[in-house]
Amino acid sequence: MEAKVISLSGKEPRTIELSDSVFGLPINEDVIWYAVTNELANSRVGTASTRDRSEVRGTRGTNRKPFSQKGGGRARHGDLKANIFVGGGVSFGPKPRDYSYSIPRKEKQLSLKTILSLKVQDELVLIVEDFAVESGKTKDLLKVLSNVVDIKNPERTVLILKDDDPMIKRAARNIPWLTYLTYNRLRAHDLFYARRIIMMEGASAKLNEFYAKATKES
After folding, report:
1. Domain made up of 2-34+104-217: CATH architecture
2. Which of 54, 190, 35, 6 is nearest to 111 (CA)?
3. With contact defined as beta carbons under 8 Å apart, do 31 and 108 qualify?
4. For the whole model, what pTM was predicted?
5. CA nearest 187: which of 100, 112, 125?
6. What's the CA gap between 191 and 126, in Å, rounded?
7. How many Cα atoms within 13 Å fall on the side-chain side of residue 119?
8. How far is CA 195 from CA 16, 123, 203, 209, in A?
């Protein structure tokens, strides 16, 4: 398929060829859901923790019997660390755990290609000619982006880079509505929820090569 490349210098847009195997796939909602859910699970910290009655310490850490077994008219209790007492242990509370799990590599790749195809169909992908921000300053990156989008009415945007450019990354860190991703380190969650995707021309070419190579290897 053909796509327009927006010039940042005011020149007329030109066209490039995008691979149908990356940007022209039918939409598979199931595989998108699996990939997004997997990324959310892998990002969970899993450090929530409570103490059960065997771990309670301090004033409630005593093992003494709170009152007599009989004669008081109350239910019998062995100590104050039971979960029904204030300050006692917690029954079935959370413990630190690892929520992460892996999905097949082919499924992950298919989900990313499907999301890219979905965004192309919805006309939310803008391909721009390659650029650099030599100063690494946020204001210079915003000046470049203003040639493509309206930065006064920002939307959740993903910028796909053609390589690990430290200066662009440093400039993009202070823009709250912008997320930067390298072509070979895409994230399904960021791509799916983006309201627009700005892709460098070099990144689109490398995406074609990267997924074509991955398909042959698999």
Report:
1. 3-Layer(aba) Sandwich (3.40)
2. 35
3. no
4. 0.83
5. 112
6. 13
7. 27
8. 23, 10, 19, 26
Task: Report whether 94 contacts 206 (CB < 8 A).
Answer: no
Query: Domain spans of the chain?
Result: 2-34+104-217, 45-98
Return d(Cα 218, Cα 214) in angstroms, integer: 6
pLDDT tens for each residue of the chain, 218 residues long: 888 899 887 677 888 988 888 999 999 999 999 999 999 999 999 999 999 988 887 666 567 788 899 998 999 888 888 888 888 889 999 999 999 999 999 999 999 999 999 999 999 999 999 999 999 999 999 999 998 888 888 899 999 999 999 999 999 999 999 999 999 999 999 999 999 999 999 999 999 888 876 555 55
